[in-house]
Amino acid sequence: MKMYSTCFSREYWQQSLREMKDLRKLVFAALMIAACIILARFKIPLGENLNLNVTFLARALCATVCGPVLSIVFAAAEDTLSFFLSSGGYAYFPGYMITTALGCLVYALCFYRRRITMRSLILAKVVTNVQNVFLGSLWSAMLYGKGYLFYLTSSAWKNLLYLPLQVLMLVVVLQALLPVMHRLHWAPNQLEEGRIPW
Question: Rounded distance, CA 179 to CA 52, Å?
Answer without folding.
Answer: 27
